[in-house]
Amino acid sequence: RLVKGSERVVSLGMLRKPLERGVHGRRWLIASPQHMSAGIANTCKRCFSVEGAETEEDEHEILFFSLRHAATVTLKEMHQFGAQANNKRALLLAAQFLHEELPIRLARRVRELKKLPFGLGETAAMTQVRKLYEKSFFQIRRTPTPKTLEIEENFTQVLDRMMSEHNNVQATVARGLQELLTREGDFAVHQRGIISREHLPGSLASFDFGQFLDRFYLSRVGMRVLVGQHIMLHHPQDGFIGIIQTECQPAFVCSHAIQDAQHICQLSYGIAPNVQMEGSIDMKLPYIPEHLHYIFFELLKNSMRAVVERYKEEQPNKQWKADELPPIVVVFAEGDEDIAIKISDKGGGISRSGMERLWTYSFTTAGKTREKLRQLEHDDKPVMAGFAHGLPLSRIHARAFGGDLQVMSMQGHGTDVYIYLWKLGDREVSVP
User: Fold this and answer.
1) pTM value?
2) Residue 146 burial by CB count (10 A; 0-12/13-18/19+): exposed, middle or buried?
3) Which residues are 116's β-sheet partners?
4) Residue 242, Cβ neighbours under 10 Å: how many?
């Protein structure tokens, strides 16, 4: 079975052979050129651009990979396989899996970015993101399959550079959305992130941008986990297998996030509420502490800002002290399957109309996103809130390995946020 584009045959990958049993289970690898016809093998050897898709052949190559399904990988699988990383052959197999898997995930995002309606895909920011993904796609495709330790080392360096180049994608995507909404006057963002445009009929008049960003960011988190895990297997740390901490203590990670959030709150408001931790603070599980820190940090920032602004508005002339503000309470509970964490504040809560837009990437209670982005570009001072990405991205991080994040709020009192972590680590999450 071949996919034809124009008169050139684009055929890289339809012939497959299974990866060895017991390493990646159902995973598949592309058959090597010697298993293909001579003409197809010659096509495989073509030198690809590293600056993005510049020719029709490049476009066909991306399209071909975008039609393939991404593999699912559980946290438990990553932890078990990473334990074999001292075996050089295991590193080679992991690198070969990434060499096959990452182009599929990158190509699927490129294809979806190109299909964005209302000219969103042609904005400067979104074009920048798409070109970056195309560049990464061709960088991996032009790198030889890691069959020796030397090639594997070079491939890992390519992945390391790619991670650094993608660090600012989140801010760039936020700029792209703001660029669209301010470029023309007939756009509007409705509840649940639906973007609509006047004078267009029926289904053409609206697009669920929130669902698109959920897919985009879930894929981004998944790729960064896979790449980060492989890179860190080359730099072993005590108590870690790659980026997974064998005995991760959520309360300990939370304590660091509390300090970081209080620091930013102090810079922004001159004061920060206290935080109390209660419950099963000694529990441990294999998990990625970086993900936990991100979730805690974003949620605690929201709670601290709500508490400080509520009481400063009530008595604007008073010089508040931290002990005079109601503390934020973090409760940890361990169940048979899940670990549940509740963050409670008395910051006044969120209105019901606000709750309906809470998970959209264009809604924030902290001011206009465009102004915050401008502040980030021209000011070294950290921004407390206002990008409209923190809460939905926290939920994406929680869901990446089978967990979840839910919000309950009482306007006039405060907000409770519930974080659920899948304790067993074996839940598969569909990769968009």
Assistant:
1) 0.81
2) buried
3) none
4) 25
